[in-house]
């Protein structure tokens, strides 16, 4: 996670059921909490309906995430990821995932 996120206060994440979390350090701390939570790991995320759009040094990806833990369905979520190109490398600057009902 540390290598794929843009550095700065402009980055943010919205995890399903949570509010906006802003700033590189806090965003990475939120991912550490997600990864260290008491889930039945490993998480398996199957992506569907992927759309990629690029405009200059900005791009975004939308998709449906089907999340499973050790064979059990954990749910579906719609995700949007925004990327920015810095010095020739793409970094994520926004991740927003919202749970949707089955």
From TrEMBL:
Instruction: Domain (SnoaL-like): give its ranges.
Output: 1-98
PANTHER family, alphabetized: NUCLEAR TRANSPORT FACTOR 2 (NTF2) FAMILY PROTEIN, OS01G0753200 PROTEIN
- This protein is called SnoaL-like domain-containing protein
Question: What organism is recorded for this protein?
Answer: Aegilops tauschii subsp. strangulata (Goatgrass)
């Amino acid at each position: 996670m540390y290598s794929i996120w843009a550095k700065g206060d402009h980055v943010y994440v919205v995890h399903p059921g949570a509010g906006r979390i802003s700033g590189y350090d806090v965003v990475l701390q939120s991912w550490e909490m997600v990864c260290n939570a008491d889930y039945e790991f490993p998480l398996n995320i199957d992506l569907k309906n992927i759309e990629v759009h690029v405009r200059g040094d900005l791009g975004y990806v939308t998709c449906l995430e089907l999340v499973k833990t050790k064979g059990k369905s954990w749910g579906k979520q719609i995700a949007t990821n925004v990327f920015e190109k810095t010095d020739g490398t793409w970094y994520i600057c926004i991740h927003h995932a919202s749970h949707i009902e089955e």
